[in-house]
Amino acid sequence: MEPFELIINHDERVYPPDEDSYLMIKSINTKDYRNALEIGVGSGVISLNLAKKLDQVFACDINPFALRLSKKNATLNSIKNLYLFSSNLFSSIKKESFFDLIVFNPPYLPVETPPKNFLDLSYNGGPDGGEYIRMFLNDFGSFLSHNGQAYLLQSSLYPLENTTKYLTDHNFEYNVVNSLKLDFETLYVLEIRFI
Ligand SMILES: C[S@@+](CC[C@H](N)C(=O)[O-])C[C@H]1O[C@@H](n2cnc3c(N)ncnc32)[C@H](O)[C@@H]1O
Q1: Which residues sit with their C-beta closer than 6 Å to ligand 1?
Q2: What is the pLDDT of residue 176?
Q3: Which atom of ligand 1 is nearest to the CA of 103?
Q4: Whole-number Å distance between alpha carbons of 153 and 182
Q5: Sorting pLDDT into bands at 50, 70 and 90, what band is 1?
Q6: Where are the domains of the chain?
């Protein structure tokens, strides 16, 4: 998906669109899908791009300032099909809700100390960087449509094999559809579906 030209406002308490956000946007194949769920919407940059292509996009965040900013950015771009709600990962999503696309650019940096504020929650992936990735992997399959695809970003700072082993052990197949080498890490985007 080529990124659309969007007006994106910022808030110092919210993760700003960065290389990982754009890598994710470029990696997502929206096919003939109709809806998507984004976990961790941040500024809204990924979900707003999806909303231009799909009928409905649902997006959540644990940071109330991210939800407020995403709503503002949706209004600035006249986007009316983005539905925002507060959630800790999948906690607010009703059982038996299914999405064609599920997207997560998680907090993925290894940090020993607990997050101190909302912005820290964007980066802090726990001591090994994999805390939110593991929680996401445990739950996303319950909400993915039979023919749907999930997109998960992760850094080489947390071993990719941990994720790929989990996926193959749990009846998923995956492709690494994009990567980006940065100074201290490489970012990977995994495209995941049921076998
Ligand atoms: C790396 S940022 C990505 C933001 C945006 N999707 C982007 O790509 O620019 C991670 C986002 O996940 C949110 N987040 C962190 N922990 C979360 C949780 N337990 N449940 C939902 N969202 C969470 C953060 O507040 C932040 O907005």
Answers
A1: 15, 17, 20-21, 24, 39-43, 45-46, 60-63, 66, 87-89, 105-107, 121-122, 132
A2: 98
A3: 6
A4: 14
A5: confident
A6: 19-194
Q: What is the pLDDT of residues 14-36, one digit of tens each?
A: 999 999 999 999 999 999 999 99
Q: Which residues contact 22 (CB under 8 A, 6 or more apart)?
A: 3, 45
The one-letter amino acid at 64: P
Q: Which spans in the chain are helix H?
A: 19-27, 45-53, 64-76, 120-123, 131-139, 160-169
Separation between Cα atoms, residue 68 and residue 9, nearest integer Å: 11
Q: Is 0.85 topped by the overall pTM?
A: yes
Superfamily of domain 19-194: Vaccinia Virus protein VP39 (3.40.50.150)
Beta bridge partners of 37: 58, 102
181: its two tokens: 């080498």
Question: Atom 17 of ligand 1 has which residue's CA nearest to it?
Answer: 62
Give the per-residue pLDDT at 2: 80
How far apart (Å, rounded) are the C-alpha atoms in residues 180 and 187? 5
pLDDT digits over 35-72, tens only?
999 999 999 999 999 999 999 999 999 999 999 999 99
Q: Ligand 1 centroid vs 122 CA: distance in angstroms? A: 5
State the CB neighbour count (10 A cutoff) for residue 12.
8
